[in-house]
Amino acid sequence: MPNECRALAHKIQDKHQPGRFASRFWKQQCHAVSAKQYHDLARELVWPMFKADLGACTEKNDTNPETQERTLTVHLRSDDMWKGLDGKKIPSDAVANHWLWQHPPCSLYEKVIAEEGFQHVLVVTSSDRLNPCVSWFEKRAMWSNYSVRVQSKTLLEDSCALLRARNLFLSYSTFPESMAVLSLQVRRIFSRTQYQQYSA
Description:
Elements: H1 3-12, H2 35-46, H3 52-59, H4 65-69, E1 71-76, H5 106-116, E2 120-125, H6 132-141, E3 147-151, H7 155-164, E4 167-169, H8 174-182, E5 188-190
Parallel strand pairs: 1-2, 1-4, 2-3, 4-5
Helix pairs in contact: 3-7
């Protein structure tokens, strides 16, 4: 454990179960710890807990390297962001959940695609496809100069797609951020805002 994290670990240690920790992980960060340290620790301690199928999926060599370089993988968070506490879709005239404002506007994806010259876009989202940028991407695909594919598969397959991405656009969620930290393939990460202030 990096020295910078020891004080935090002591603070959030479960007093009733030594060696276990309890915290709101999205609010607790180790200050001054590099992304490389997060990556190395995640690969050492977290990666072995995943199913072997996920590792096998990430090691597949079935995509042309040139195509990978020209592909932007976008994670669009849907589901809990676009539903009320009753599980129903939030009406368009409702007061928005404050987390909604942390998600990129659809136009930001267009800006990155144009400026970086991506030719392919893989959108990874949940099966409800409630995020309005899903339909926005599908409409853009009809007349834009880049291809779009929307994927809503199993957790394993969607995780694999994020882990295999060379160019990854994060949603406001710890899920794609965790996949980016664990990835051995990602080279560029795009985000509207840094989700965890100290995640480097």
